[in-house]
Design brief:
- There is one protein chain.
- By secondary structure, the chain is an all-alpha fold.
- It folds into two domains: 188 residues, Periplasmic binding protein-like II (D-Maltodextrin-Binding Protein, domain 2); 57 residues, no CATH class.
- Helix content is 40%, strand content 0%.
- It has eleven helices and no strands.
């Protein structure tokens, strides 16, 4: 789709959100349900990455307060995301979004995590050429992120807690991670030594090393609320933010509605 519109992907990871928005808009053909991007922070922690890219955050340092519509950088990031649909028509609205997929050739670009890199290659195969870049920097700040990983745990009711813990250690060690990549299409596990393993160098897309270097240099703590009400906060975000990002309400009204609803959850006591 980029080639068809005379566009070139960024040469490297040194690009900006402004350049991304311009490219996505130029690649879009809304009348034929072709769009340049599908960027949409469906999770509050997705917006955390955007807010950090603009130099801010979605929670304050104490993790006691929601700063979505308080932190100027977070507000600027939200304006950028919202403008992709309301101004640039570079991303699908609510009615247009269903069924659009990068692998199907209806999106010129798509945002995804390292968890999907190898499976994406299997899905696309040789149907068209594509490449991967890190999410752009903002015009005045380096890209940000939050580290979202899955974890193994042992229940307190386990009859064999020691053995269960030893099994978790075994399943998450470097050797198991390397073997998983060598013998399947699995993504490399969330262990630095696996990503750096020399035997995987020729198997993994260079984006893994780009991401590893970036995350090694830049912290990305997960924005977990201090009252531990993660799921309630996430559910509240999901139920209130889409009207804003799809442009169904004014920007100011939508921002305040999300802020008020999420801050209400933040003020609840620990369960």
């Amino acid at each position: 789709l980029l080639d068809q519109n005379g566009l070139q992907p960024p040469a490297d990871n040194n690009w900006t959100t402004t350049e991304y928005a311009e490219m996505a808009a130029a690649a879009s053909d809304p009348d034929n349900l072709i769009f340049g991007t599908n960027v949409l922070p469906g999770n509050y922690y997705d917006h955390c990455s955007f807010a950090r890219t603009y130099g801010g955050d979605i929670l304050d340092e104490s993790r006691d307060n929601f700063t979505f519509n308080v932190d100027p950088a977070s507000i600027e990031a939200a304006k950028w995301v919202t403008s992709l649909r309301t101004e640039l028509k570079a991303a699908p609205n609510r009615a247009e979004a269903e069924g659009l997929q990068f692998a199907a050739g209806t999106l010129a670009t798509s945002t995804l995590g390292t968890y999907a890199v190898r499976s994406l290659d299997e899905t696309i195969a040789d149907r068209f050429q594509y490449d991967l870049r890190l999410f752009p920097n903002s015009p005045d700040h380096a890209r940000g992120y939050q580290a979202f990983v899955e974890c193994f745990s042992v229940a307190a009711q386990s009859q064999y807690p020691t053995e269960a813990f030893d099994l978790c250690v075994q399943l998450t060690n470097t050797e198991a991670g390397v073997e998983s990549v060598l013998n399947s299409s699995n993504q490399p596990t969330a262990r630095k030594s696996v990503w750096e393993a020399p035997e995987l160098k020729d198997l993994l897309h260079p984006i893994f090393q780009d991401a590893l270097q970036w995350m090694s240099d830049e912290p990305g703590p997960f924005p977990h609320p201090s009252n531990l009400r993660f799921q309630e906060l996430q559910d509240t975000w999901a139920n209130t933010s889409l009207d804003l990002f799809y442009g169904d309400v004014s920007f100011e009204e939508g921002m305040q509605a999300v802020q008020d609803a999420c801050q209400e959850v933040m003020q609840l006591p620990r369960p």
